[in-house]
Design brief:
globular, 8 helices, alpha+beta
Length: 312
Amino acid sequence: MKLELCPNLDEMDVVFDHDFVFEAHARDRSALITRYRGTAVRPSDAGFTVVAWQKSVYHFGGLNREVPVLATVLLDPAGVVRALSLDERCLGSQGARCDFRELSLCMNDRLRGKPFADFHRHCPDAGAARCLHLFELLGGAAGFFALVRERGLDGGSEQELVRILPNETGLTAENRHILLGRESLTELELRHLDPPQRNERDLTCRIHTEAAVRHQGEPAFTQTLQAEQFQEVYTELNLLLSKCYHLEKQTLELPGRRRVRYTNFTALAGLLLLTFSHESMKGAVSRAVRIERILHFIQTGEGRTGCIGFGG
């Protein structure tokens, strides 16, 4: 199977093939990053079944990796967690160091007997989840489950696919999000006016880039990104993606001020930083090692205790 299009899920009667997450592959290596994620909610005799999945595929010269994660959450009729399981085929970004059996026990201890919609009250950050991927996955699933119930539905699905590709002047990124029958498409064209610069950690510390955004096939806005330090670069990217995020919310008719966590836009800044650094690197094996270090930094942060996936 190729990981190029979202699978066709009936938003009112969701039956999701778990094998898709582990057997679909992004064979087109021209895409530096492909990330697919989604949530399916379905009624059951005992209440509800929520299946949440995320798969990141990295194709950087010398580094080819797939990171599939799938969780199943069983809820009672009131939306209280009865049990949570992680597919035994899950892989973290650090390979064998990611202990999903231990993570499953940890999340069951934290969430069992609690309303799933209150996930962030009981698991406020990635440190509490002990895994960034799992925190993103379950936080998004909990938010979507709450939306489904608020709309008086018994079930439904949302799914999203993002691809980041290089071009002659910079990068292009496409984010497609399908939610309860509505679809949002956002396209970003990033043209470097000056080549991005890296610091001693290989993190992008200087950019001068023009961003052109299209939404639903029409020009939406342009923005110049200019920064002289890593934190400023990160801030500039987040400001750009925040505008894209609000365009998506409007198209998908999502609640006004409530933060939406079932979206790739909250993670795209880190993914774009990876691609910026990759653009100016040479070599294969050495570049792969440096990309690994950047990925580690973005996922754990300097000075913070690493998750189980990083030996914490």
